Amino acid sequence: MQEFDVPVVMDVTHSLQQPNQTTGITGGNPKMIGTIAKAAIAAGADGLFIETHPDPSKALSDGAKLLKLDLLEGLLQQLVKLRAGVS
Q: Which of 2, 21, 40, 67 has a CA positioned 20 to 30 A from the CA of residue 57?
């Protein structure tokens, strides 16, 4: 896509979605958000989509795969450093 001058945005949150849970509610693996985001940046992604919430357990939708909001700033700082190193 980048060869056609189209930006590539990685949907980190939904890539960790675990559908068809026994509860009938889609699950997820938020512990892997940092890893997947770093891999996407290292691979050259132009942007990231990461859903956050102050308290994912109280989110009305997608709570099982959301990043706690207070973790976002630290992750973004790491990603900016990584991006600078790969560019």
A: 40
Q: Which two tokens stand for residue 35?
A: 């890893």
Tokens standing for 85?
């190193």
Question: In whole angstroms, what is the distance from residue 64 CA to residue 27 CA?
Answer: 5
Rounded CA-CA distance 43/64 in Å is 26
Q: Would you state the torsion angle of the CA atoms of residues 56, 58, 63, 64, taken in this order, to the nearest 10 degrees?
A: 80
- Please report which helix (H) or strand (E) contains residue 9, including its range: strand 9-11
Residue-wise pLDDT tens for the chain (87 aa)? 888 999 999 999 989 888 776 776 777 889 999 999 999 999 999 999 999 999 998 988 888 889 999 999 999 999 999 999 987
